[in-house]
Give the backbone structure.
Amino acid sequence: MSYLYEEYDVVVIGAGHAGCEAALASARLGMKTLIFTVSVDSIAMMPCNPNIGGSSKGHLVREVDALGGEMGKNIDRTFIQTKMLNMSKGPAVHSLRAQADKKDYSNSMRNVLENTENLVIKQGEVAEVIVEDGKVTGVRTTSDAVYPCKAAIMCTGTYLKARCIYGDVSQYTGPNGLSAANHLTECLVNLGIDVRRFKTGTPARVDKRTVDFSKMEEQKGDENIVPFSFTNTPEELQREQASCWLTYTNKETHKIIMDNIDRSPLYSGNIKGTGPRYCPSIEDKVVRFADKERHQVFLEPEGNYTNEMYVGGMSSSLPEDVQYKMYHSVPGLENATIVRNAYAIEYDCINPVQLKASLEFKNISGFFSAGQANGSSGYEEAAAQGIVAGINAALKIKGKEPMILDRSQAYIGVLIDDLITKGTNEPYRMMTSRAEYRLLLRQDNADLRLTKIGHEVGLIDDERYNRLLEKEKLIAQEIERVNNVNIGANKAVQELMERCGSTRLQSGMRMSELIKRPELTYDMLEEIDPDRPELPYEVREQVNISVKYEGYINRQLRQVEQYKKLENKRIPENIDYNNVYSLRKEAVQKLNDLRPASVGQASRISGVSPADISVLLIYLEKM
Amino acid sequence: MYTEKTIAGIASGMGGGIGIIRISGAESLKIAGKIFRTRKNVNTDNGKIKEDAEWDEDIFLKKESHTIHYGYIVDGEYIIDEVMVLLMKAPNSYTKEDVVEIDCHGGPYVVQKILQKVLKSGAKLAEPGEFTKRAFLNGRIDLSQAEAVMKVISSQSDFALNSALKQLEGNVSHYIEEIRQEILHNLGFIEAALDDPEHYDLDEFREELEAAVDSEISKLSELVEKFNDGRMKSEGINTVIVGKPNAGKSSLMNILLDEERAIVTDIAGTTRDVIEETVHLGDIVLKLADTAGIHDTEDVVENIGVDRAKKYVDNADFVIYVVDSSMELDEDDEQIIDILFGKRGVVLLNKSDLDTKVSDMDIREKINWDCIEFSNQTRQGLKVLEEYIQSSFLKGEISYNDQIYLTNIRHKEAVEEAINSLKKVKETLDAMMPEDFLTIDMLDAYKKLGLINGETASEDLVNKIFKDFCMGK
């Protein structure tokens, strides 16, 4: 029998990486918040790779942190190895990645949730989001309890009608045998939401004691630890780091796979969901890149207090016996005990073009959706959407304008705009190449880009905000100074140039010009700069990058100006594209389907031509 | 105020007695000043600028609005044409921006040459309807006119795109696409390595990339040469001569070429199998576009096939149907007439000096085209044919393909911009900048070339990365 439970402002469905950020943001903004999870023990669980960050994903984590989210702080608390990738490349693609102690990560996040004011955790499965007159009024659990609420955020990850598969074994469970959420899909369909089926997978875990590391290359962490969170200092985070290990597949591995490819559910048709191309199973790699003689395999610890190791690069849905042979053909894994088999997982998710940039459904007021349920993949992508949905649910209830980040402000903006404008046919992963203005959207300046917004929203306290203002001031002053300091062609200077492999000065030069030389940096010039003030590393880093890449940065800033012009032209929600004289039919249909919020967004819809945009601009002026 | 780059375009219809080039935008006065000279500065005897004459390029900035200036448009040291320049300063102009109109002596060649000069001096070619669009967005024209503008933009863009694609069928498009794909592949490699640095290594890639960029630049530069020396020029009324064997098509072609000795171009450059003959009839340019076959062999229908002939007719603006009037119309003629329906054209009753068996009326029964009695031998009817084509054109019955010409300029602009971007890639390589800086200009070059083939880039790169490079955990 249905019975009424306590009323909440916001109900979050699912406590994975999206759900946790959404619930925390909402509760911290003063909303009475309830978060549902199928198992309290699985809060912020990492069911696949044991790391956070990496190329472009590290950017997302820092952005979440700059807005006042938890992911960065949580990984800082629980990492067992950390590494800055791409250090030899430009600053735009430097990417932080940390190996997590999975158990620790999950517990630590659970602890934060449990001790957050306004936040209640509840174990249970939501079966229905109750919508009346196009507005969310509550949720109903499978036990028929109704929780009235003003907003609901769907963060169901890979749990909707989840099915795990390897060989001909298939189990209707979520990851790690956790129970799936089998009821909500029907409700979504009834609400008129377009639901699709995606697939992803995970490799086996092996017992560390049975791995022969002498046949592998050790991959150590960086000595110089860089925190994810802008609130932490490297000194606070010093700790002993664990190692990862690199080995390779070989011809034997590939032969085992090819001999059994007909038994793979991916190829036999047993799996129908669309899988990601960037994270292919090993059988996919072997089939699609037949000329490659070997593929990398990374052994990564799952934590400090377990012997399980993640076999990165070898996700699979081949039958157990084939997996057994396949893993054992890899050097170092000959005698490895497989603790958990690799499997593929299929799940329901929504077509994200049904969402606004606030992550609220266009047609259902108060219903938000975030994370893998939106067709993305990855913990970081999920967290990024989670915080946005949580903030916007709260802002909506407070009667405020939503927080929308655009493509020139944040990777989060790129991620959400891609999802809601272009949609996706496979689990969507962030990549730095998706960001047009990536030189501006660096991981090192996420705080300068977003902390003010976080403060305005209410997730960043005054103290942190003031520290940011101080940092901004110091950076600006120092840039101003190096633009005006003249360096003479004296002996000390020439000596330094020689030492740094740079050409001698012909005459005096501005300090800023010297910094622009590829072989020099701001820090290297300290000894010939007697008036240099003492500045913290994060200020010096910004001065160096801003001065060194000034030309490129300015170019991108000009592009952003152009971009903003169309982005700032809002399209009224009630526009009827059928009335827009001279729009091509295809454009009318696409625009009616997607209902973009701005002319800029409209211009990114496939099937809308530049001529259509001109026509639309004129129509909007006329309105 | 809606402000954008300074644009330029041809404001007059093609082929009229006077040509108007309109420039609009903040730079327009400056641009006009660069290419204009007064009477004092030129020597009309040899058509050159006087070497010792001083010139102030900012002349128009200093002149009053709504004034007219007499003088010359020059290209380097040479005069292009004698002109009147009209200044209308913001906001008192059609677009509410600074506008300069250059009135010249007309003739497509001169008009285009001046336009080219304006574009080279810093203006961007106006999109279809762009002047009017600016006028509207700046509040100059009233609301009822807006819909007309929208229609112009959408129809002309479609037309331009279609003509562009029509032109590009064949080798140029393949050639550009190959270069484009090579750029994309290299971009994909860099991005894959940035995304998965533990997997892909860029250490030895710089040299490889430098070589690739060098070769791309040289290939594209060759293409620009071809645009410049006119081998790619394709303005003119697309005209096709059809008729059955021995009706006299080749002779007609030869007569037209012979009469008009003026400009005859063999375009055998990039589109190898197509030979185009250009004929000037007064102000009008006919482009006799045929396969090698059409005028080498006498027989369209048999040797090339009805299908092929149909393709040419479909693409033509104007068709000359040559009938051998000394013989009765037969099945072959029926077949030809079938493919002519819906086209503009004229029927030449050839061999009128012989015994005629086909009359005006016989043709009229089958197709509603005008007939001209003609003789290859005596050249009777040639003048009538010329006048007929000219007057059809001036009445607007045949549309002159200026859009195609403009599209061509756009192509050239795009190729040149792609070259510039690739040169920047080289500079970035030379400056030892990290690889992620290389991709900025590589992507630019890729996008610019995409404009030519009418393709957009948004998802290409991501798809390429996944397709060519094995990524992932």
Observations:
- The two ends of chain A are 52 Å apart (CA to CA).
